[in-house]
Design goal:
Elements (H helix, E strand, L loop, with lengths): L20 H15 L31 E14 L2 E7 L4 E7 H4 L1 H7 L7 E10 L5 E4 L2 E6 L15 H6 L1 H7 L1 H22 L4 E2 L5 E2 L11 E4 L4 E5 L4 H9 L4 E9 L11 E10 L3 H20 L3 E3 L5 E3 L5 E4 H9 L9 H10 L10 H13 L7 E4 L11 E2 L2 E5 L1 E6 L2 E8 L4 H12 L8 H8 L5 E7 H8 L23
Parallel strand pairs: 3-5, 7-11, 15-16
Antiparallel strand pairs: 1-2, 1-4, 2-3, 4-5, 4-6, 8-10, 9-10, 11-12, 12-21, 13-14, 16-19, 17-18, 19-20, 20-21
Length: 502
């Protein structure tokens, strides 16, 4: 028999809680605990082991184990008269506990039966294995350490509303093992990334979020104001320019993992606040970045995933071992359009042909933007296996070096996996005159949009370098086989509810 409460929707307005039956029942229990002199909210609780550490303690030869102290949230409660099985959820997973009246005493057992699903408890006792073969803690004592005032979502259905999943992530993490796994894996992936670069003598740094000029990418920034300095700032849209200043300053290998902010669209693949890894290595180039990224992915596959094959939700596999494809941007465009004269055509002709291909193109788009619409809408979604798309048009990447054999393109790659860009990388522009010209063309004559201090830094001399950016959220999305970026972010950006609650 289970003590799970009747299924009900969670109240979203705090004003509704007082009339909510289950909330009222728990409030009454709380009042009785306090009246009886019990403390329903402990300051601490002994925990000698987690659920993941328990199996290694069990001695199969003696069918017994040592005494342990575990703690967690009650997520299963099977009351069977004078004996009860419960399961606790801790940071590593679930551990079963067996509670008997004759073991803990009649008074303690009577109090225990009034515990609820969602309560946090501490349990101490020896390990044993049940007839079903599950290693279990035989409770010698059980203590309520934090009372849950609201019922958990129904066990078998969890959270069905997508908005509630992301808005009340704490509930999703309790009832959804897949969400817990993805978000725990994200942390481990980031740790492996850090160790990958530390092992190669890269210096991890932190650079400012507030910037007087939002540079390093073509994106609309968020704006804010400093009252103390009496001036406006942009939240950074990239990490690039401060990191390259460090190359000028003599740090040959630097990386940063940090938040960037772009005041643009929100979708299953885009978030206005996301996490970027940016890496810069002096005396390297875009090909050096290919090797650096591939070795990073292989490390994650070997140390964390145990496989080089990632299954997509549609059942197809992404193969991360072996050779990765290289393809020139122009060749992909010519193949998709079946037009050998595409790059010599006028803007108007490209607009008509792109429209004929079924692409919705902004009539105000420039020549190179129309071409990039063809790539972004017809080609990139088909690049499921790892593909380095190289030699992009120079207008798309003003911070990269021109290709020696084709000055209309730059020495870059966009690594596409799972139908989306995962990592762009450049042979970084270190010619201050060429960089100034590219900035002026990109700014369209608006001097205030040019980072003049960065140009001054370049004029002091920057070594040749390779640079790379990796969207951590998208990388985790690909490695964990999920199709929604929000699944990889603990608390994704959401529009506030009308009441002002998140």
């Amino acid at each position: 028999m289970s003590t799970t409460e009747p299924s009900t929707s969670q109240p979203t307005d705090p004003q509704e809680d007082n009339s909510h039956d289950l909330y009222a029942v728990r409030m009454e229990k709380l009042s009785k605990l306090i009246e009886a002199g019990s403390n329903p909210f402990f300051a601490n609780c002994e925990q000698s082991h987690t659920s993941a550490q328990i199996p290694a303690l069990f001695d199969e030869s003696t069918e017994s184990g040592p005494e342990v102290s575990v703690a967690g949230r009650i997520v299963v409660f099977r009351l069977m008269g004078k004996a009860t099985f419960i399961k606790l959820l801790d940071r590593d997973g679930r551990i079963q506990c067996y509670v008997r009246q004759d073991e803990i005493g009649e008074e303690a057992y009577s109090a225990f039966k009034r515990f609820d699903l969602g309560d946090f408890v501490g349990v101490s006792g020896p390990l044993f294995k049940t007839k079903a073969g599950e290693i279990t803690v035989r409770a010698k004592s059980i203590t309520l350490v934090s009372k849950s005032m609201r019922p958990l979502p129904e066990k078998w259905h969890g959270l069905a509303d997508e908005d509630q999943i992301y808005r009340q992530r704490y509930l999703d993490l309790i009832v959804n093992d897949r969400s817990r796994s993805i978000l725990q894996s994200r942390s481990r992936i980031v740790r492996e990334i850090r160790e990958h670069f530390w092992s190669r003598e890269f210096l991890e740094v932190e650079t400012p979020v507030f910037q007087t000029v939002a540079g390093g990418a073509a994106a609309r920034p968020f704006l804010t104001r400093s009252n103390a300095l009496n001036c406006d700032f942009s939240l950074r849209i990239a990490l690039e320019l401060p990191l390259k200043r460090l190359l000028v300053g003599g740090f040959d290998r630097v990386f940063e993992i940090g938040k960037v902010f772009r005041n643009e669209g929100i979708s299953r693949r885009h978030s206005p606040e996301f996490t970027m890894l940016e890496v810069y290595q002096a005396y390297s180039d875009y090909r050096g970045m290919m090797d650096l990224f591939r070795s990073m992915i292989h490390r994650i596959c070997e140390n964390l995933l145990g496989t080089y094959d990632i299954q997509r939700p549609d059942g197809d596999m992404i193969h991360l071992s072996g050779a990765w494809t290289e393809a020139r941007y122009k060749d992909l465009i010519l193949d998709k359009t079946q037009d050998p004269d595409w790059f010599s055509r006028s803007r108007e002709e490209k607009f008509k042909r792109a429209t004929a291909l079924g692409i919705e193109v902004d009539p105000a788009s420039e020549d190179f933007e129309i071409t990039n619409d063809v790539f972004g809408k017809l080609i990139e979604p088909t690049l499921i296996q790892p593909t380095f798309v190289t030699h992009l048009p120079k207008e798309l990447v003003p911070l990269a070096k021109l290709s020696p054999n084709d000055p209309s393109t730059v020495e870059v790659f966009e690594l596409c996996i799972n139908g989306q860009e995962i990592a762009p990388a450049y042979s970084e522009q270190n010619d201050p005159i060429a960089q100034r010209e590219a900035f002026e063309k990109q700014a369209g004559g608006e001097i205030q949009k040019i980072d003049h201090d960065f140009l001054t830094a370049l004029e002091h001399g920057m070594p040749p370098a390779g640079g790379m950016g990796v969207g951590i959220d998208r990388l985790v999305m690909m490695l964990m086989g999920t199709q929604n970026l929000r699944d990889t972010i603990l608390f994704p950006t959401l529009k506030p509810r009308a009441s002002g609650d998140l």
